[in-house]
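Support reply, case 0932

Customer input (verbatim):
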Amino acid sequence: MTVIVDIEGELIPRAQARWPDAVVRDELDNSLISELPTIQIEQVPGGDIAAGRLARMLVDIDVYAADRASAVALAGEVLGWVELELRSSTTDTLVISKAGAITLPAPRPYENTGLRRVGATYEIFCHPVS
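Our regenerated output:
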């Protein structure tokens, strides 16, 4: 039987530990501009199951920062984190076998001109620890 993990619940604490000066969350707050930089991690619909156990999850990670250069730089760090640190990692509850970008970080529109948003979509292949 396939067990689906809460990928947001798994990644948010890891990202918060990696970037203690950023706010890491799944949903944005009304005071976003006062909480920069912010990293938003959200699972998006899609993905599939391989071999009855290995889930392929799709995750959007958006970075919000005061200016474009800061947002681009932090999004680049997130890309490296996903590809180098998450890949082949294990916690008490989750094994990530591989992870990588489906779309590279790029500016994404956002209605508040007081900040900039850069994001990418990632695929993460994982399963619960057995």
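We compared this against your earlier run and they match. Two observations from our side: Residues 7 and 43 are 7 Å apart (CA to CA). Strands lie at 23-25, 38-50, 54-65, 89-90, 94-107, 116-128. Please reopen the case if you see a mismatch on your end.
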